[in-house]
Model the fold of this input.
Amino acid sequence: MAQKHAAHAKETGKSADELAVVRFPIVVILMVLALVAGILLGGFVTGGGAGRLPFLSSASSLSESQLDDTVATYTVGGKRNKVTYRDAILENGSLSAAENSDGSYRIPSADSVLATARSRVIAAEAERQGIEVDDAKVNAYATATFGTTDMSSISSAYGMEQDAAAVLLREATLMSLLRDKALENKAGEAPEAPTEPTEGNEVAMTKEYADYIIALVGKEWDSSAGSWASNDGPFATALSDYEISSSGATYEAACQAYYIAYQQHVSALSQYSAEWTDYVNGLLNDVSINISTIGI
Done:
């Protein structure tokens, strides 16, 4: 494939690296909770590795009998709720990963305790708005996010206990549904990359690629005229050096169109992320979260 890129690069005057950029799709995964700084369900949702848990120094520790002591409280709708040390540890990993060699447990950091409380506040708001989660919705979210519904695989991949991972998955699903209800996602689905041509047909003009480009650019193409509706649009500008008609376009032109469409999609996702951040920050402004003194 590298030789194929190099050969095509020589023909078109573009470097192999430049062609590789437009050939291969950019993978953008929209993690619901990763859109808000500080409101993360540990590495479980954001992709952190197993065992990467936010703790204070191992010199500060808890006995097993202290795990269910309250480390934080938060008030939502006049109701006071608590977060225990166990809650904060499990929502960021596993008890075994937090355990010291002497059988005591490392104390979770204030940031991880705060993240646990915030996550529960957002999940509570979803429930307050009547959003319900059943197994089908949780499975759909798990499939879209992790590519599987196997809780054993998901929990082990993130160094978590299976029951705790199931609770977090339900919370994440609630938050996803809240986001969808609260905001209008104008980003839509990510565009699909054009089908690669067969060997030797990289520069051939085909109707397949013309149709692909026309469908991708939408209103920028005037189908009745068989040309660009305007020469100053983002697609028309980016594709100005390519010969494109209703009956034919090259694979390289299709790749360039795909690249521009993906840039637009990522930009729309960024705006969507900012709107979600504002929404969540507004929600948290009305919530009182108090953390007890942590550590020795």
Observations:
- The CA atoms of residues 127 and 212 lie 42 Å apart.
